[in-house]
Amino acid sequence: MKPETFDWVIHNAWIVTADKDFTVIENGALAVAGDRLARIWSLDDDPQLPPGRQRLDAAGGIVLPGLVNAHTHLPMTLFRGLADDLPLMTWLEEHMFPAEARYINPDSVYWASLLACAELLLSGTTTIGDAYFLARHVAAAVAEAGMRAVVAQGVIDFPAPGVPDPAEKIGHARAFVNHVAGRADGLIRPSIFCHSPYTCSERTLKEAKQAARDLKVPFQIHLAETGDEYRHLAGKYGCNPVQWMERLGILDADTILVHCVHIDTDDIAVIAGAGAKVVHCPESNMKLACGIAPVPEMLAAGICVGLGTDGSASNNDLDLFGEMGSAARMHKVAMDDPTVMDAATVVKMATIDGAVVLGLDGLIGSLEVGKAADLVVTDCRAPNLVPIYHPASTLVYAARGADVSHVMVGGRWLVQDGRLNGLDLERIVARVKEAVRA
After folding, report:
1. What b-and-e string marks burial along 194-233, b requiring 16 or more CB atoms within 10 Å of the CB?
2. Could you write out the DSSP letters of every residue in 187-218?
3. 303, 273 Cβ separation under 8 angstroms
């Protein structure tokens, strides 16, 4: 029988699979056929490389699943560094909301989103959970970049970019979902995003969640991000943010709660019981002095927690390697325990757990035969990555987005040798700078 010929054979690599056993292969190889992972093995067991149309010698680097940035706002690259070192509500109400009202339009959203995609790809992210306004133009940019994403149309109780009449917000969100659902490439899936319980009324929250249920898409919301939010809901409704979501019937397995900083043991039990998912954004939470989410406690309760950067205006970068390092370290300090949030746990948050949060774990998030060929190769010849004893530790505590050499999505190389394929970065930067000059 003639041996199978693969499209790509990647060899001479540490392979971090992020599968259920967190299998790591020291001298590994991986084969890609079409858009799928076709074979993964140890060269110690079988040193013979199979026929491949093309081969990549990873030079002892680490191959891992494409990173999943489970929460961000792509167009906010436009506002990176615009209003730093401010409390959240001052930042939002006096700077971000006015800037969005004046400068966010289809053109600026498209180019700022493309800039974000370029940054994400070059630092190893292949899948995005995005939430913003003018979501059709965000989706168009992501499609142009060739990335995978769950893109959500934002819902809020006052005029917003693309939705000048708030009465049309739910209809607009439904229309966006139907628009994306009609796409043939399968890389982009739709969602609905309510900004927060302090910018969305009870009626808005219920109607948006019902729309998400009707259309069978995820529902996303910023929740329990600050003490101010906690006090606002306690004063207005006599309950905390998680209790408010439970009272409104929002919580279920298709609900994604972003931040969850100000929650207690009872709240954790409610979230776990509902099967809702959480996204942890440690660097944004630190920068805005929101606090530290009780992630170890959430994980212990069985809640699936993914990792996100949040937007460029509150982080200010989209490097998920940096986010992994921050997540691992901040909880050790907070709990006075160096054993919590170990490296493997954090790598899972940035890969398979992020995929679970977005409802994509059957397709991506781990390197397993039959899954989509979404993967990242790090160049471990860099001084900061030598030597390697435990590759998960190397990824979390030593690696940076700049150490990424190759990125593949669905069997296509979108980054090779640290350079973008298919995106004109010079043109993208020029267009964003043109928008910034306004």
Report:
1. bbbbbbbeeebbebbbebbeebebbbbbbbbbbeebbebb
2. SEEEEEEE--TTTS-HHHHHHHHHHHHHHT--
3. no
Q: What span, in angstroms and rounded, lies between the C-alpha atoms of 43 and 63?
A: 14
In whole angstroms, what is the distance from residue 55 CA to residue 122 CA?
A: 21
Identity at 421, one-letter amino acid code: N
Contact at 8 Å (CB) between 13 and 56? no
Distance, in Å, from the CA atom of 223 to the CA atom of 103, rounded to the nearest integer, reads 26
Q: In Å, how far are 89, 217, 239, 247, 293 from 229, measured between CA atoms?
A: 10, 26, 11, 17, 14
Amino acid at the residue 306: G
Tens of pLDDT along 256-302?
999 999 999 999 999 999 999 999 999 999 999 999 999 999 999 99
pTM of the predicted protein model: 0.97
Residue given tokens 């296509």 in the structure block: 412
H or E element that contains 101: helix 97-103
Q: Taking each helix axis from N to C terminus, what angle separates 106-122 and 425-436, rounded to the nearest 10 degrees?
A: 130
Domains contained in the chain, CATH given: 6-65+363-420 (2.30.40.10), 67-357 (3.20.20.140)
For the segment 76-129, what is each residue's pLDDT rounded down to a tens digit? 999 999 999 988 889 888 999 888 988 899 999 999 999 999 999 999 999 999
Distances (CA, A) of 234 to 25, 197, 244, 322, 341: 51, 12, 9, 35, 31
Quote the mean pLDDT of the chain. Answer: 96
Give the separation between CA 247 and CA 245, rounded to whole angstroms. 5
Check if the beta carbon of residue 148 is closer than 8 Å to that of residue 360: yes
Structural element, H or E, at residue 413:
strand 412-416
In order along the chain (438 residues), what is the average pLDDT of each group of 10 residues? 80 98 98 98 96 96 98 96 90 89 93 98 98 97 97 96 96 96 82 97 98 98 95 95 98 98 98 98 96 98 98 96 98 97 98 98 98 98 96 98 98 98 96 90
Considering Cα of 295, then 147, then 184, then 17, what sign does the dihedral take?
negative
Quick one: pLDDT at residue 1?
38
